[in-house]
Design a protein that fits this description.
Layout (H helix, E strand, L loop, with lengths): L21 E3 L5 E6 L4 E8 L2 E9 L4 E6 L4 E6 L4 E6 L5 E7 L7 E4 L5 E7 L19 E7 L8 E5 L4 E6 L6 E5 L13
Amino acid sequence: MAVEARAAQPFTAFESGQVRPLALSPDGERLFAVNTPDNRLEIYAITDDGLVHEGSVPVGLEPVAVAARSAHEVWVVNHLSDSVSVVSLTPRPQVSRTLQVGDEPRDLVFAGPGGKRAFVTAAHRGQNTAFDPQLTTPGIGRADVWVFDANHPGQAPTILNLFCDTPRALAVSADGKRVYAAAFNSGNQTAVVPRG
């Protein structure tokens, strides 16, 4: 007897947009991937035959970026949780620390001498800060970059304010001395239209 297959009802997912969803370990032996809808970090061994899934670590809500600090430590940016999960891979993969950051963090890079500074982009809305965000004051930027000492992440971060809205991706110069931040949808809402 034939059974008729029917499609399920349409489903619309409202996941946060990934910014840096993949990272290689510095030794080139593992690939890390954020699993945004399942709130996890996926860990794969890189072998001659391809990728082998080694494990999965629950992190914060809607992870959108991952950066490998070493072969034993990975940092994950959780967009909806306003946090960063520091994942230790030894003796077994698990979150060893959660850092609270500004609203809707999106990206993370390591820079400075020995990569000991962690830079995280976030919106400037006052979450997890001890200062007045001055949300209605003209001239105050609407983006922040939170800078942590990666060797001592429990210390208070330095927060740099940027005159833009919705900070997104970060990049590091080859020598590790400069960090570049990109804004998203921060134009002046004008466009060039050719005469023709």
